[in-house]
Write a structure and sequence with these properties.
The protein is mainly alpha-helical. The chain has four helices and two strands.
Length: about 90
């Protein structure tokens, strides 16, 4: 048990990044942007919320195009909620 814990602690953790073109998290499998990815982006862009929103808008456009190719459509309101709504300034 202790050896397993040591192995887990010494192994670098993978970041929560998107698996394209499915737009699911490579680490946890949830729809990307999962909660850990959101938190990491908020920390990274804490001094520039506008830059975060521009970055997320670019990713949302990419995801919309890729998901539309896979599914035949991409619901823009779903993508807006996933990519932008949570990051708006409060």
């Amino acid at each position: 048990m202790a050896a397993e814990r040591r192995d887990q602690m010494s192994r670098p953790s993978r970041p929560h990044l998107p698996m394209r073109p499915l737009w699911r998290c490579r680490r946890c499998g949830a729809e990307w942007l999962c909660q850990p990815a959101r938190l990491a982006l908020l920390v990274e862009y804490r001094a520039d919320r506008t830059a975060l929103l521009v970055y997320l808008s670019t990713l949302m456009a990419e995801a919309g195009a890729q998901l539309a190719q896979l599914n035949g459509h991409a619901a823009s309101e779903d993508l807006t909620g996933r990519f932008l709504s949570w990051a708006r300034a409060r």
